[in-house]
Fold:
Amino acid sequence: MADSVLSWQAYGLTQVALAAGDQGTKPMRGDDLLNGGAACYQVYATADGGFISLGAIEEVFWCNFCQALGRVDWITRQTETMPQTLLIAEVSEVMASEPREYWDRTLGAVDCCYHPELDYTEVASWAQVKSRQLLHGEGNLRFAAWVEGATPSD
Structure:
């Protein structure tokens, strides 16, 4: 698993390499685009104790998100200096005003890189998981689909 997700870390690894050569800055948690400093790339709490994730890094996705919420005033704020503490607080307040189900209905079909944070009891019934037949098992044993031809012991 670590081998797979390491490929997702190119941005942060590049920043650290640049910082080591005094050509950049070491990213601090909560200060940068991919580590909590940007409003467009966050996990937000909902009114019912649920969570949603937003990965609207590209301008078009952030624009779609803001328009869906009726907050076009946020569109130009995507490029504010990080950490975007005030913008994050504003988005957090809006997200916390409604339950996760509301955000699923409001943002689920919007092209904005939104996804609800599912708990284990919800995963098996999630439409994508069901339609792609991603879970298998018998009785109390459940496991994710594996590469065709592989067996659970591979």
Remarks:
- Residues 132 and 145 are 9 Å apart (CA to CA).
